[in-house]
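Input (structure):
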């Protein structure tokens, strides 16, 4: 039985028992508690001769094995890559007597992934090969984060979410409400223990309360809480806002009508005054004003100086 090299670091379809690929034998699955030491066993049967090499590679969870990066290389001299030298050591040094195992000191969750032990002997190709090891660092769940998605109005649906950023094995999530609370209709609650979601449908005021989520695995548990307060939607405020908006709109239209009315009336008055003034000017030009004429009649028989004007008063 063996693992295909195309598998990813997060999944290896092998059992916990030792298995062989050509002449290399490894333990396919290794579990270690965070902070403890983990030994990745790898043995081979070939006789190390000139050209013998040993290589260890690592692929983070979700990374294909073909993209694994070199951690250790031995070809008569030991070479370490990056900071692994301070955290990893060969169980047998030099690794030329059939044991290529390594030990990781104080493993951390970031050390989880796929490790590849690759043995190459040019003088004995039948004794060459590689083995794949899945390392899982066991850690208790971190404190989860609780969130609410949706609006807590009567008749609405909301979803409570709960998630721990760390935890191996993968945490299982469970929800519960505070004590002394009335039971809710079973059809209105849907919980998913794998994703940590809790669906509350067709809310009523009975849903009001504190909800607690617990994330747990074999190493421990952690919890978070969230308060839910269900209220009636403020439809009256919405209607009032609409009415107020309509009232303001009517006032604006009325003000505009009044403004244009007065403007029109003022403009009409100006037009009338202009027409009247023009008529007066035209009338003056056609009939110029003349002073009153006084006519006098004199008696023709009398001399001018003795003539009495009919306009003069009688003496």
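Output (sequence):
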């Amino acid at each position: 039985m063996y693992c295909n090299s195309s598998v990813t670091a997060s999944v290896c379809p092998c059992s916990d028992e030792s298995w062989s690929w050509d002449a290399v034998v490894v333990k396919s699955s290794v579990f270690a508690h965070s902070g403890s030491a983990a030994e990745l066993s790898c043995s081979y049967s070939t006789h190390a001769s000139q050209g013998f090499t040993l290589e260890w590679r690592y692929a983070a969870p979700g990374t294909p094995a073909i993209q694994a990066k070199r951690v250790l290389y031995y070809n008569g001299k030991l070479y370490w890559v990056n900071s692994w030298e301070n955290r990893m050591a060969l169980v047998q040094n030099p690794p030329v007597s059939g044991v290529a195992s390594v030990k990781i000191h104080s493993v951390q969750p970031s050390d989880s992934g796929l490790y590849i032990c690759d043995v190459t002997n040019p003088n004995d190709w039948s004794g060459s090969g590689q083995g794949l090891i899945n390392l899982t660092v066991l850690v208790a769940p971190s404190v989860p984060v609780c969130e609410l998605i949706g609006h807590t109005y009567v008749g609405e649906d909301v979803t409570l979410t709960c998630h721990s950023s760390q935890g191996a094995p993968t945490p299982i999530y469970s929800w519960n409400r505070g004590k002394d609370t009335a039971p809710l209709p079973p059809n209105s609650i849907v919980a998913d223990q794998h994703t940590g979601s809790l669906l509350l449908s067709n809310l009523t005021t009975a849903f009001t309360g504190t909800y607690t989520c617990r994330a747990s695995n074999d190493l421990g548990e952690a919890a978070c809480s969230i308060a839910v307060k269900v209220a009636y939607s403020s439809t009256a405020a919405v209607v009032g806002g609409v009415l107020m908006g309509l009232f303001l709109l009517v006032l604006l239209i009325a003000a505009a009508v009044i403004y244009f009315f007065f403007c029109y009336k003022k403009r009409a008055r100006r037009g009338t005054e202009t027409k009247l003034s023009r008529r007066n000017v035209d009338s003056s030009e056609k009939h110029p004003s003349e002073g009153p004429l006084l006519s006098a009649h004199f008696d023709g028989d009398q001399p001018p100086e003795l003539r009495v004007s009919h306009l003069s008063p009688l003496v």
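Notes: The helical segments are 235-286. The first helix runs from residue 235 to 286.
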